[in-house]
Design a protein that fits this description.
single chain, 389 residues, alpha/beta, twelve-stranded parallel beta sheet, seven-stranded mixed beta sheet, 35 strands
């Protein structure tokens, strides 16, 4: 049987902040699906392992083993985590050795008895459609491209009857409820894209959804205006959300605007937290990460929130802000454009490792997620890599 390996960037660096060393790039969402899932669908294979020194030992729930970078023997397919294929089937010939997108190699096919190192950059190639992802901010480019088509594809599948009392603007067939609960009076505007609500999701009265929108398992939309967004499992969301990705288990249960942002897992945004996603000059947005500067080329970019980040009530975040993993933002009216990992406030203090683990355990218990020893050690590894980077 052919194995599938997802190869992480060798040195994620500033471009993949705030997830470098914290979460595999393969486990980030490009549209509805994680990058790993897009590759699996395209190749018809299940992932054997994710390979990358910066994520070795990572454990969350359903991801494959995360191992240090190493040699791979065949038969195997090794693909780049920093490329998001469309998901259309990729047909490999018996002699195929490379997958190429617009001249860039994004995958290698290792024959039986061979080694990855021996494949190199030669041999017959198959062209692959998709998107190269130079950094975290590019997930928003992938959202723009993939979310409409991902929702449209799911809209062709099975669904429950539309709940009574729903208000639909556009074709009711573009609203897909698959075991979700919808209170009377919810507005579904599908004139610009379909929307999908998974099992256990809940949408309360006072919510207006403008497609395309994907609502993952167990997520609750508590009210507000939500458009062009993806919510992973078990999020709690209220307020105005636009062009934003919630990876899962995020909490924004109060009002406030979040736009053109990426929200990592287990993030808690205090009441009134608001992101700016457009400069007053209407010019391209740069990210400042530590001493580095990244030109995104984007005119709209809010905040990139790392896993387990938290903001105090009334937090105002400037255009192109990066809040790193485990950071607690409080204590000043103006938040810097870059908040380092595990910051305690913005005065230069840092949370201790055991304090971080205690808080994580309390938070996970609120969503009935077991804080296993394996999960504890994974978070301990994240702390040590990110806090001392």
């Amino acid at each position: 049987m052919t194995a599938l390996y997802l190869l992480e960037p060798p040195t994620p660096g500033a471009a993949w902040a705030p997830f470098g060393g914290v979460r595999p790039v393969a486990e980030l969402r490009a549209g509805i699906w994680r990058i790993r899932e897009r590759w699996e669908h395209a190749l018809g294979l299940k992932t054997t392992a994710i390979l990358g020194d910066h994520v070795a030992g990572f454990h969350e729930d359903d991801e494959p083993p995360c191992l240090p970078a190493r040699s791979v023997g065949g038969p195997a397919v090794v693909v780049a985590s920093w490329f998001a294929p469309t998901g259309e089937p990729i047909r490999l010939g018996a002699d195929t050795r490379r997958l190429v997108h617009e001249g860039t190699i994004v995958g290698w096919i290792v024959p039986e008895g061979g080694e990855l190192a021996s494949v190199g950059d030669r041999g017959p190639a198959v062209s692959v459609e998709g998107m190269l992802l130079p950094g975290t901010y590019a997930l928003l480019d992938a959202l723009d491209r993939y979310l409409p088509q991902d929702c449209a594809a799911l809209a062709r599948g099975p669904r429950d009857a539309l709940p009574a009392g729903s208000v639909v603007l556009g074709d009711p067939a573009a609203v897909v409820c698959r075991g979700a609960t919808v209170e009377p009076g919810v507005v579904f505007d599908v004139r610009h894209g379909a929307m999908v609500l998974e099992a256990g999701a809940e949408v309360r009265h006072g919510t207006r959804l403008e497609g395309p929108v994907y609502v993952g398992r167990g997520t609750r939309l508590l009210g507000g205006f939500i458009r062009h967004a993806v919510f992973g499992p078990e999020c709690r969301v209220r307020g105005e959300i636009a062009a934003t990705i919630f990876l899962g288990y995020g909490n924004k249960a109060h009002d406030g605007f979040v736009g053109h942002s990426v929200v990592g897992r287990w993030v808690n945004l205090g009441a009134g937290t608001t992101t700016s996603n457009l400069k007053n000059t209407y010019g391209p947005i740069r990210l400042d990460v530590g001493a580095g500067r990244i030109e995104t080329g984007r005119l709209n970019l809010g905040t990139l929130f790392g896993d387990h980040a938290k903001t105090a009530i009334g937090t105002m975040l400037g255009t192109g802000t990066v809040v790193s993993a485990g950071a607690n933002v409080f204590g000043a009216p103006s938040v810097p454009k870059y908040v380092p990992p595990f910051a305690w406030g913005i005065a230069g203090e840092q949370m201790h490792e055991e304090g971080f683990l205690r808080i994580a355990e309390r938070v996970m218990a609120r969503r009935e997620v077991a804080f296993t020893e394996e999960r504890r050690e994974s978070l301990r590894g994240i702390y040590r890599r990110a806090a001392r980077a």
